């Protein structure tokens, strides 16, 4: 028999201590950490015990158990239980603690991480009052647990001061010769530092233990099927919380602008990726950026954090220039027009920005040029000549997005100049095979020009240091971490920050005065300049990393700019900037079964959502319900109708409405007296648990997952009403009437809780519910406090208001019609529309449309109708003297519809339909 | 999940009266109220207890060595397998495949609790595998298929078709 161990490995401590304590005959061999001893395991795993039969044991606990058994001390059930607890509960916490103490130098946080397990152990030891874990003699459990704690306790920062029983036990075991000898052999008196080389080889522990990384063994079967078993303690705890009632302290105050960081508060700065101005945002943009950020910002505000939520339109770049040329306007006019379109869409979606700005401002120039000079002075900029594509026909250098060609990596024929949609790799435009100017389809030529580069390789080590810290302490989504890692793995290269354009922030350097900043360098600075336009004291947010936590929301294609490139600009500028702490990236939302794509014009666009007649809150709900969190998801009309009807109408709305109606009908609008029985307490416990899950998830920005827990609560509620039948009991005797009262009272209080939890998701509906229930405002901050406290906020005698249904059914034919209107024809209609919405030059699209569109009398009829309606709308708007931007947008839609009509009727569309917009 | 596994085990062991369980904490660790002493906590602990109660100690292994091996795989199940990420799962399958190369059961030639609980734990993974992957980890699928057909084991889980039914044996299927 042979035991293989390595120095500095805490698991080997267990095995060696057990070997010495039992005195079993066995050879010991020290090997390196990365030696693969067990033949069938692909990762090095130590300790390992080669058994006489030739088999290997690779789990330290099993080894200890075996050694004790060979020595005639079989493991008792209690011993088994401690060993299992050690492996499943203590080890994950210890891994995290050791990671912090050894690798991150944060010994001070160790006690926080280990608090839970330490309490469990202390309680158990003091209750049993025996010298060892399983009784009067030492068992495998004692050695295993001692070895677990030994490394962290060998460092002085964690003491067991108040935990007397635990300390006595630990000292007793530590005094054994076996333990002292094993500790000497494994740690060699070097304490925690002796473990450094071992820890460096371990994967970083998952901070919130596997929530994020549990997909392959998700217990979905359990959620659907069996009910969670509630313990007595949980029920009593829930009932106690319930009886506490509302906070006396005032509810979250109304926001007072300008919002600035406050001492002693959690100051949270939220940004969502800046939408590019000359596109109408589609649903994928909305859920990925502004809506997700909005939900979190609203939630944070309700939690009592000091939140600032900024966003704005990203306005510089070639696309805007071209668009302006097409429409015969100046770039500034184009930006003004579309900025207004964006604002009105977000307003309709109830996105509650504290400030929605834009990048074409003086502050932008000022701040971008300041960062530029600071980088320049510190030697982080280098000069180089670049080969660039220039279209002689259009007389301009072509921005990446205006070149298309064959991907040099995967041969996809429609790769763009910056990135291939198929393989996702970044491309240098000059490397494209058979490049074409997207505007005129001519082949561009290669010209060279002098440019400035940000020296990313020089900043790489600083960046990595910062990333290590930020990703391990903040909440970065898995995709954000992974994309960032893959960028770093490939090594950073200098990145060009200047362009040969006019519409941009001018480069202040004399040698580059004809140039502007490249949009990737310029645009993220927009976050700072937009804040600066909001308040002169913007530096309190952006140069204050100690007081401010920064959350960036975006879709995953935007990750590298926020995690690598922009942080490098800020690190290099060395001005104590606030860097991102939490990077929240969504995956993609697909449309029906294809991708939303601006450039291909597939999908529903933000301005069309309101034309569906479906309320903004319902749109929000559905988009958040299918939020591409962790994996791609799809928007589907049929599913939207289904979720509206099954979840909102039949589950949530039904429960809230019934609860309110019972109060109105059976108790004259006053909440009845409640006397909680076992069953009610059980429900309270179930609801409290869901609330706690909701808060845990929302704190970690798992917005979609958290929503499911809201719906679970109303499901519990419906079941509770169904089983207790208050409408029958109300007609019975006194005790039955009393029972009906309790059930009604508890239900209406759950309805109130639901309104609070819904608030970030469906602000209007949430407010309506509280208005109907006449709920006291302090219910919000009370229930979202701490881990979530479900209290009785509508106590007996409280008078509620008038109750009415919250949601409407979406009928099948209505959805069919919508699907047809927005979805069914999307390959043709949307392509045509993309001419206006996606900055794709008109002629090319007209050709595309022409090829797919046949004469279609049915569609022509629909379109004739649509043109007439849209015409009415424009006339009405003009008569009302509506805002110019709104009218312009509607006119654009009208022209577009007319063009589609022409196509459907088989006529030639205008060769350049955009010209019509000049007037 | 854990509670269903325990109730399936009870059925397998032929226990007439179902035990009463509750759960503890976020991870829903099962708890068994025990008439003869303090409650037992933890899937593995409870499972071993049930096997002993039912007078089926051989399910825990019949030598010190095999008992250690059984415990090791039970521990592997509740630590490695239950918390593994999508990337990790490939390693798990690869290692297990190599391990099972020359074995019928996890503890050699004898069916034990290790097989039962590794089977329960790996079931969702196997369900998600493409048929090609199932063929790639051929020893794992062989073992998996064997256990799911073992009388009385597969109570709460749907059967998984692990191998293609080939109509033609040639390579051009």
From TrEMBL, chain A:
Residues 200-219 have a biased composition (Polar residues). This is Methionine--tRNA ligase, cytoplasmic. GO terms for biological process: methionyl-tRNA aminoacylation. Residues 859-915 form the WHEP-TRS domain. It comes from Maylandia zebra. GO terms for cellular component: aminoacyl-tRNA synthetase multienzyme complex; cytosol. Belongs to the class-I aminoacyl-tRNA synthetase family. Residues 72-207 form the GST C-terminal domain. The keyword Metal-binding does not apply. Residues 200-229 are annotated as: Disordered. The keyword Ligase applies. One of its GO terms (molecular function) is RNA binding. It is found in: Cytoplasm. Its EC number is 6.1.1.10. Residues 1-75 form the GST N-terminal domain. InterPro entries: aa-tRNA-synth_I_CS, Anticodon_Met, Glutathione-S-Trfase_C-like, Glutathione-S-Trfase_C_sf, Glutathione_S-Trfase_N, GST_C, MARS_N, Met-tRNA_ligase_1.
TrEMBL record, chain B:
InterPro entries: AIMP3/p18_C, Arc1-like_N, EEF1E1, Glutathione-S-Trfase_C-like, Glutathione-S-Trfase_C_sf. PROSITE patterns: GST_CTER. Residues 49-171 form the GST C-terminal domain. One of its GO terms (biological process) is positive regulation of DNA damage response, signal transduction by p53 class mediator. It holds the Pfam family Arc1p_N_like. SUPFAM superfamilies: GST C-terminal domain-like. This is GST C-terminal domain-containing protein. The lineage of its organism: Eukaryota, Metazoa, Chordata, Craniata, Vertebrata.
């Amino acid at each position: 028999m042979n035991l293989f161990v390595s120095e500095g490995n805490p698991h080997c401590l267990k095995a060696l201590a057990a070997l010495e304590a039992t005195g079993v005959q066995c050879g010991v061999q020290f090997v390196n950490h990365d030696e693969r001893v067990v033949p069938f395991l692909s990762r090095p795993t130590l300790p390992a015990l080669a058994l006489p039969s030739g088999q290997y044991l690779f789990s330290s606990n099993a080894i200890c158990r075996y050694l004790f058994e060979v020595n005639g001390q079989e493991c008792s059930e209690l011993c088994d239980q401690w060993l299992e607890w050690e492996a499943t509960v203590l080890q994950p916490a210890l891994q995290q603690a050791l990671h912090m103490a050894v690798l991150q130098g944060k010994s001070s946080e160790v006690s926080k991480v280990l608090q839970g397990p330490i309490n469990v152990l202390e309680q158990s030891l003091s209750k049993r009052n025996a010298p060892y874990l399983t009784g009067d003699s030492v068992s495998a459990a004692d050695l295993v647990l001692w070895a677990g704690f030994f490394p962290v306790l060998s460092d002085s920062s964690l003491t067991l001061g108040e935990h007397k029983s635990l300390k006595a036990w630990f000292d007793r075991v530590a005094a054994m010769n076996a333990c002292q000898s094993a500790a000497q052999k494994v740690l060699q008196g070097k304490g925690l530092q002796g473990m450094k080389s071992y820890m460096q080889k371990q994967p970083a522990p998952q901070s919130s233990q596997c929530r994020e990384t549990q997909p392959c063994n998700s217990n979905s079967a359990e959620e659907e099927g069996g009910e969670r078993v509630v313990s007595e303690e949980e029920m009593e705890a829930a009932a106690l919380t319930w009886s506490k009632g509302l906070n006396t302290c005032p509810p979250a105050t109304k926001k007072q602008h300008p919002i600035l960081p406050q001492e002693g508060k959690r100051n949270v700065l939220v940004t969502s990726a800046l939408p590019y101005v000359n596109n109408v945002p589609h649903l994928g943009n909305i859920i990925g950026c502004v809506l997700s950020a909005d939900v979190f910002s609203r939630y944070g505000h309700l939690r009592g954090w000091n939140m600032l939520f900024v966003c704005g339109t990203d306005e510089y770049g070639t696309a805007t220039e071209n668009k302006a040329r097409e429409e015969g306007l100046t770039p500034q006019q184009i930006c003004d027009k579309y900025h207004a379109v964006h604002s009105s869409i977000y307003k309709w979606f109830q996105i509650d920005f504290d400030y929605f700005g834009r990048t074409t401002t003086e502050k932008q120039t000022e701040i971008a040029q300041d960062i530029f000079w600071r980088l320049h002075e510190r030697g982080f900029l280098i000069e180089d000549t670049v080969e660039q594509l220039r279209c002689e026909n259009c007389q301009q250098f072509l921005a990446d997005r205006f070149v298309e060609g064959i991907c040099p990596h995967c041969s996809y024929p429609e790769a763009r100049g910056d990135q291939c949609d198929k393989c996702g790799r970044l491309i240098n435009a000059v490397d494209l095979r058979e490049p074409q100017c997207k505007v005129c389809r001519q082949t561009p030529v290669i010209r060279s020009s002098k440019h400035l580069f940000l020296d990313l390789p020089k900043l790489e080590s600083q960046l990595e240091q910062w990333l290590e810290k930020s990703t391990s302490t903040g909440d970065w989504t898995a995709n954000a971490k992974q994309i960032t890692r893959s960028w770093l793995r490939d090594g950073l290269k200098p990145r060009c920050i200047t362009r040969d354009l006019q519409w941009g922030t001018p480069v202040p350097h004399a040698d580059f005065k004809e140039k502007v900043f490249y949009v990737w360098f310029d645009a993220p600075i927009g976050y700072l300049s937009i804040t600066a336009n909001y308040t002169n004291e913007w530096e309190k947010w952006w140069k204050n990393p100690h007081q401010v936590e920064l959350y960036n929301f975006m879709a995953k294609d935007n990750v590298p700019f926020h995690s690598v490139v922009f942080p490098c600009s800020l690190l290099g500028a060395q001005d104590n900037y606030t860097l991102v702490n939490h990077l929240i990236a969504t995956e993609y939302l697909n449309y029906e079964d294809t991708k939303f794509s601006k450039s291909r014009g597939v999908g529903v666009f933000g301005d069309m959502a309101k034309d569906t007649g479906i309320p903004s809150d319902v749109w929000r709900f559905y988009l958040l319900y299918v939020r591409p969190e962790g994996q791609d998801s799809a928007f589907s009309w049929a599913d939207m109708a289904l979720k509206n009807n099954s979840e909102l109408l039949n589950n949530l709305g039904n429960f809230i409405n019934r609860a309110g109606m019972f109060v109105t009908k059976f108790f004259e609008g006053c909440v009845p007296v409640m006397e909680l029985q076992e069953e009610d307490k059980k429900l309270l416990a179930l609801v409290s648990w869901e609330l706690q899950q909701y808060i845990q998830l929302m704190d970690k920005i798992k917005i979609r997952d958290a929503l499911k827990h809201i719906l679970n609560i109303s499901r519990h509620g419906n079941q509770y009403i169904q089983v207790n039948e208050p409408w029958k009991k109300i007609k019975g005797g006194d005790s039955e009437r009393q029972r009906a009262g309790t059930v009604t009272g508890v239900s209406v209080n759950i309805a109130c809780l639901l309104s609070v939890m819904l608030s970030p998701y469906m602000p209007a509906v949430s407010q309506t519910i509280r208005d109907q229930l006449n709920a006291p405002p302090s219910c919000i901050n009370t229930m979202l406090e701490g881990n979530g406290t479900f209290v009785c906020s509508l106590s007996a005698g409280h008078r509620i208001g008038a109750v009415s249904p919250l949601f409407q059914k979406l009928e099948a034919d209505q959805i069919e019609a919508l699907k047809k209107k927005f979805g069914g024809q999307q390959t043709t209609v949307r392509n045509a529309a993309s001419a206006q919405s996606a900055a794709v030059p008109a002629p090319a699209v007209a050709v595309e449309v022409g090829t797919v569109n046949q004469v279609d009398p049915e569609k022509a009829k629909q379109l004739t109708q649509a043109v007439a309606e849209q015409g009415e709308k424009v006339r009405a708007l003009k008569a009302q003297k509506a805002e110019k931007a709104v009218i312009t947008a509607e006119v654009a839609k009208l022209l577009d519809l007319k063009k589609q009509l022409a196509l459907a009727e088989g006529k030639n569309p205008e060769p350049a339909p955009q010209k019509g917009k000049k007037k | 999940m854990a509670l269903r596994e325990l109730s399936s085990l009870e059925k397998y062991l032929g226990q007439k009266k179902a035990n009463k369980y509750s759960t503890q904490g976020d991870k829903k660790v099962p708890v068994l109220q025990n008439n003869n002493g303090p409650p037992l906590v933890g899937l593995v602990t409870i499972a071993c207890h049930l096997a002993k109660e039912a007078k089926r100690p051989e399910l825990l292994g019949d030598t010190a060595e095999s008992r250690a091996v059984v415990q090791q795989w039970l521990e592997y199940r509740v630590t490695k397998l239950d918390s593994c990420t999508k990337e990790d799962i490939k390693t798990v399958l690869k290692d297990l495949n190599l391990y099972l190369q020359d074995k019928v059961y996890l503890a050699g030639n004898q069916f034990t609790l290790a097989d039962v609980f590794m089977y329960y734990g790996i079931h969702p993974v196997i369900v998600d595998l493409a048929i090609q992957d199932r063929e790639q980890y051929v020893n794992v699928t062989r073992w998996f298929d064997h256990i799911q057909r073992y009388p009385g084991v597969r109570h709460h889980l749907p059967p998984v078709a692990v191998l293609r039914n080939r109509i033609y044996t040639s390579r051009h299927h």
